[in-house]
Amino acid sequence: MTSLSFRRPVLARGSLRPAQAVLLLLLAQVAIGVGPLMVRQVDVGPADSAFWRLTIALLAWIGLALWLRGRSAAGASLRPTVKMGALMLGAGAAFAADLTAYHFALTHTAIANATFLANLSPLLVALGAWALFQEKPTARALLALIVALIGAAVMTGWPHKAASLSFGDGLAIIACLFYTLYLLLTRRLAGLVSDWTVILWTSLGAVGTALLLAALRGGVEFPHSPAGWAAVIGLGLISQAMGQGLTLITLARLPAASGGVMLLAGPVLAMLGGWAVYAETPSLDQALGGAVILGALVLARR
User: Fold this and answer.
1) For burial by CB atoms within 10 Å, which of 17, 220, 226, 252 has the most?
2) 42 domain-assigned
3) Does a structural domain hold residue 160?
4) For residue 7, what pLDDT is reported?
5) pLDDT at 14
6) Using CA atoms, how far apart are residues 47 and 13, in angstroms rounded to an integer?
7) What pLDDT is recorded for position 90?
8) Which pLDDT tens digit goes with each residue over 17-27?
9) Is it the case that residue 266 has pLDDT exceeding 80?
10) pLDDT of 84-117, one tens digit each?
């Protein structure tokens, strides 16, 4: 049986080169970054939108896995050991809890607070990988991550434009912790079982948890309009299936600190998307913060 000792560094499988992993991770952040544009069209509650987003992504991944059956991309067994299965279901539950908590945080606090506090997860992942997996970050990568976090703070206007910590801020911190747990577990698991196994089993855990959370609020609500359905389908296929799927696969093949810097490209891409689609001209804080994050990306790749 495969050992789950956290003393062995993660050894990501696959033939992806670091440069290819970086490009795919940036593509994933583009897919995730367009998510807020679609959220504006969602006409159901936060827990319901999280459920539909996760369910549609799971259906897409199952369909793709069936289509690839017998090929090398999906040839590995999808039947993990009990211990592995429990860890993957737990990782999925953590992601569903993160997504739901963040959606609710956006309704109880300033967007600046929720965005910045949720974006602390890359730093926590780098520190966690260092402590659990002995993945000591290089000085350059750690500096780039800190610079990127400063850029995220400037971009969101946090804390000088934000109110004092509130209930919604607590939800954003909880979301951050759950996402950190999800990333650390999937990072570890990606070196022990196939990518398809991790994707499908974590998705199953996420959908089950999202269904439970929605049920606790009275049951799952269906979108009320074609625009609402288009929004949740877009979230499921683009932001979740493509964005989070590529994030899961590529992060395991990059150092934790360097990969964390790439994750912070998401807010910049979301800002640019809002500018292009909704004519929301970036403020001075947003432009400066975005420039700092882009500088951190260059620093991380030098």
Assistant:
1) 252
2) yes
3) yes
4) 38
5) 52
6) 34
7) 94
8) 777 888 888 88
9) no
10) 889 999 999 999 999 888 878 877 766 656 667 7
Average pLDDT, the chain: 79
Say which range, 24-28, 160-164, 238-242, 281-285, has the weakest mean pLDDT.
Answer: 160-164
Share of the chain above pLDDT 70, in %: 80
**Domain count along the chain:** 1
The three-state DSSP-derived secondary structure of the chain is CCCCCCCCCCCCCCCCCHHHHHHHHHHHHHHHHCHHHHHCCCCCCHHHHHHHHHHHHHHHHHHHHHHCCCCHHHCCCCCCCHHHHHHHHHHHHHHHHHHHHHHHHCCCCCHHHHHHHHCCHHHHHHHHHHHHHCCCCCHHHHHHHHHHHHHHHHHHCCCCCCCCCCHHHHHHHHHHHHHHHHHHHHHHHCCCCCHHHHHHHHHHHHHHHHHHHHHHCCCCCCCCCHHHHHHHHHHHHHHHHHHHHHHHHHHCCCCHHHHHHHHCHHHHHHHHHHHHHHCCCCCHHHHHHHHHHHHHHHHHHC
Does residue 89 belong to any structural domain of this protein? yes
- Amino acid letter for position 103: H
Q: What is the pLDDT of residue 4?
A: 36
Report the C-alpha gap between 30 and 266 in whole angstroms: 7
Q: Is the pLDDT of residue 3 over 50?
A: no
Quick one: 272 exposed, middle or buried, by C-beta within 10 A (0-12, 13-18, 19+)? middle
Give me the domain span that covers residue 59.
Answer: 18-301
Q: Which distant-in-sequence residues (6+ apart) come within 8 Å of 34 by Cβ?
A: 234, 238, 239, 269, 270, 273
For 278-292, b/e burial (b = at least 16 CB within 10 A) is: eeeebeebbeebbeb
Describe the crossing of helices 265-278 and 139-156 by its angle, rounded to 10 degrees. Answer: 40
Residue 286 lies in a domain: yes
For tokens 């939108």, the residue is: 49
